[in-house]
Amino acid sequence: MLSRSATKYYDPEAVLTDEQITALVEIGTSAPTSFNFQNWRFVAVRSPEAKERLRPIAWNQAISYEAAVTFIIIGQLADASTVPAVFGPMVKAGYMPADQLPEAEKGARGIYDDNPQQQRDEAMRSATFGAAAIIYAARSMGWGSTPMIGFDPAAARKEYNFANNEIPVMLLAVGPMRDGNWPSKPRRPVLDVLSFR
Ligand SMILES: Cc1cc2nc3c(=O)[nH]c(=O)nc-3n(C[C@H](O)[C@H](O)[C@H](O)COP(=O)(O)O)c2cc1C
Fold first, then answer.
1. Ligand 1: residue whose CA is nearest its atom 23
2. Where is the Nitroreductase domain (predicted)?
3. Most buried pick, 17, 64, 156, 174, via CB within 10 A?
């Protein structure tokens, strides 16, 4: 995990199969989310045609079209009214008694109802956790990854048919690398950013 770095140079000939991409996103969706909202969506841009359309949206960053796949990582505003739907499978599986559902929904409403900032923060948090899981899953496969904020959010919204409750969180390029990438960059000393109490 400590060997990860943001990849600049991808092997432009490399291809990941749809099964490999699906496996990465499955790991992404194993990430935690508040109330298990799973308030995210992932678009895998991997065909030459789709990459060509992404290219101007991603400010012509070569990473976006040289990587085997670039994910559009989309967050969905947290919505407490979805609690029964997201908890349903847990009730069905017998983990959670059905009579706890109203209490859970009430808790979620207290946090998110009439609080657009919190709804949006949750979209960012969930999607970022999902992206982070994909980044380390890719690393474990020997592939590079690059989170990217260098893109046009309005153009992405249009191209990838965002619903009103969806926000663009980041692009995430993933794929086999070519030579020339930097190794991990130095970090601030851990004890400068960690305190014990
Ligand atoms: C939210 C976010 C946005 C980023 N956007 C870009 C980008 O648009 N283009 C790019 O080349 N790198 C981008 N990066 C990569 C960072 O520059 C890189 O992660 C940082 O310099 C630390 O380097 P490291 O990841 O190799 O440790 C982004 C990283 C993050 C977390």
1. 6
2. 3-175
3. 174
Residue 37 C-alpha to ligand 1 middle, in angstroms? 27
* Residue in the block written with tokens 């970090």: 187
pLDDT for res 78: 98
- Block residue for tokens 């995210």: 40
Name the amino acid, one letter, at 146. Answer: T
Cα(7) to centroid of ligand 1, in Å?
9
Q: Which atom of ligand 1 is nearest to the CA of 187?
A: 27
- Does the CA dihedral 168-52-135-187 come out positive or negative? negative
Identity of the amino acid at 36: N
- Distance linking the first and last C-alpha atoms of the chain: 26
- DSSP annotation of 186: P
